[in-house]
Design brief:
Layout lengths: L9 E11 L5 E12 L5 E2 L2 H7 L2 H4 L6 E5 L3
Parallel strand pairs: 2-4
Antiparallel strand pairs: 1-2, 2-3
């Protein structure tokens, strides 16, 4: 697969992604499977990964300023 931004090759890897779930709460999800560009670092998420990440606001501890979770498929 080629990157839609720069045209370089993309490959499967895992990375950590931050999400702002409320005005004051940030959740960092570790070990998220992504398809990432080897050139510009742009990434894509599969539909199944996106569905899991959509559940974050309900699972997040909104009383904490920062929470770190590990992605579980």
């Amino acid at each position: 697969m080629r990157c839609h931004v720069c045209g370089a090759l993309m490959g499967e890897t895992r990375t950590d992604l931050p999400f702002k779930v409320t005005e004051r709460s940030i959740v960092v999800v570790r070990d998220v499977p992504v398809i990432q560009c080897s050139g510009c670092r742009e990434y894509l998420l599969s539909d199944s990964v996106m569905e899991r990440l959509d559940e974050l606001p309900a699972a997040a501890n909104t009383k904490a300023d920062l929470e770190i979770l590990t992605f579980a498929a």
